[in-house]
Amino acid sequence: MDSAALIRAQLSSVRNELAESFPHITDEMLGYAPKGGMRTIHGQFAEILSTETTIIKRIRGEERISYPELEDCFLEIKTVAGLIEKLDEVRKQTLDILNSADERELARPVETSKDFASWLELDQPIVSEMLRFIARHESYHSGQLVSYLWAYGINPYDEN
Q: Residue ranges of the alpha helices (H) in 100-126?
């Protein structure tokens, strides 16, 4: 398997994990957080979407939108169905990048802040690692959503 196929599998696998929580989340639950001061379920979706969008823009070399502005845009989506639709739309953009990339493009450096590069423990992030980060980041928040469901009193592993 080449790098693109491995990244594609990672993105697909983590999205499948995230999607397992979708049938258990209602529109009324979007404002829920297990404790005050924690990001809400809606906020978790906005975080996933904002980070993936930011990375897409960095890879494409597009002008960035401030993170709070991006989050606000996604927080305006008021339904689970709308959030899922936006997740699919943003993921399509990520896969478009991946599907058009050869090994050389995947090895291309991506401009990021020094703080972000340092956080990734890379001197210079490259396209492939930015795409892998999308999967890693989504996996983290997917786990949080499962924990939120448990705290809400829902067994996320029960089939509806």
A: 103-106, 114-119
Distance, in Å, from the CA atom of 56 to the CA atom of 45, rounded to the nearest integer, reads 17
The continuous run of DSSP H or E covering 83 comes out as: helix 80-99
Residue type, 27: D
pTM of the model: 0.95
Give one DSSP letter per residue of 11-74, joined into a string: HHHHHHHHHTTGGG--GGGTT--SSTTSPPHHHHHHHHHHHHHHHHHHHHTPPP--HHHHHHHH
89-133 per-position pLDDT tens digit? 999 999 999 999 999 999 999 999 899 899 899 999 999 999 999
Nearest to 112 by CA among 129, 100, 95: 129
Task: Say if CB 56 and CB 90 are below 8 A apart.
Answer: yes
Structure tokens at 136: 């890693």
